[in-house]
Give the backbone structure.
Amino acid sequence: MGEQPRFASAAWSQKGKVTRRERFLAEMDAVIPRKALLELIEP
């Protein structure tokens, strides 16, 4: 069963300009080894 596209995802996919927040979060994803951190804190 396929996932139905939602209004928010459809609107988001047509967004053109990247915001400062999106740019910051993308940089943090590149800098912080998220997977390694999750492995450390995972019970």
Summary: The CA atoms of residues 5 and 11 lie 10 Å apart.
